[in-house]
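Review box. Two proteins, two foldings.
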Amino acid sequence: MSARGPESAPVGSDEAIDVLFDGRVRLIQSRRGFRTSVDSLALAVFACGDGGAPPATVLDLGAGSGFLAVLAGRCWPTARLVLVERDAVLAERAARNLALNGLAARATVHCCDAADLAALGVTADVVLCNPPFFVPGHTVAPAHPERRAAHSESTLSLEGFAIAAAAALAPGGSAAFVYPTDRADRLVQALGCAGLGDLVVHKLQHRTGDGHAVRVLVRAGPGSLQARDGAGLAMHPAGALDSVWSDRFAAFLRRL
């Protein structure tokens, strides 16, 4: 499915257009179904803020409604964007969001399972992945079918996402994942088993100095399993309101 132009980005009766970051980003989202979270924003800030050379191609595995890809596309204005989303409703919405934000000309949305990615011959310099983290039989999945499709492992486990990311990575490229802190060991093992064992693990903090982080951000590259601790990433300064972003988040948002 190729992303279409702005003129073909209608909004359904159960959808709304959210205006984000002082109008820099517009996002079509379901009113009651799947809605994006701060995890995607944090992953974009993490992946795009290292100051390295801009990638030629960025792959978003499990793209949902396309929020992460929109952010990456705005951050890297010359990058080709490739999105993979299994759920047809979310994949179609992602295509409309890319169009709505002026990114259709350099984006493609594939409605397929990430396990089928190899057949498409896609390679990317940067792979981004905010994988589902509800495990059937171990956690209570969301009741709404759209949220369940986005947040629950189904045809592909976390290990499957790691394998797909490794297979799609171009030489010299890197993958970036966001995942719950209390299950970080599982992510580390999954990436290591997939051949992405050169890992740097960063803790995502709500505010600077927080003792507990609810998410980890992991940068992975080919190699044997070796996980190193990186600097923490805070969304807000200590003592500040949630409307005040940390320096790194604020700098990223200015680039959009």
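Next protein.
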Amino acid sequence: MKPILLLAPVLLAACAVPPSPDGFLVVDEGRHHVKSIASDDSMYWVRTFPDSLRGSLDFWRETLRNDLVDHRGYVVLEERDVEWRGEPAVEMLCEVTAEGRARRYLITFRIEEGLWRNTIHVAEFVAEKRVFEEHVESVRRVLRGA
């Protein structure tokens, strides 16, 4: 058997979208995305985007932070370096009040470097502030690959 065939399952697993956290029902999924909801209207989704400009993790960290704060009205409560299935990633915990309701937003992203373009992997979790803590560790556990 050729060595590349032995690596195929490993390579495919590395590119796969992570599963949904416990307590979430998948409502839409495809090769490059998954959307899930919980009974309390919490939402979790993972998507991938091509990046032909090949921006670094630091570039996207600063760009996203500026967009969230300057254009979307979020307050960044915490920002930290994490691992997404063994790869370097950035996690931002944000909060916003919209329509009189406080909501928490956790966004985690990593960059997969490619020969001609990079791929940006983004996981987003949003919930009302009062139920956010019920799910956040499950979301983090899925992204860590635990």
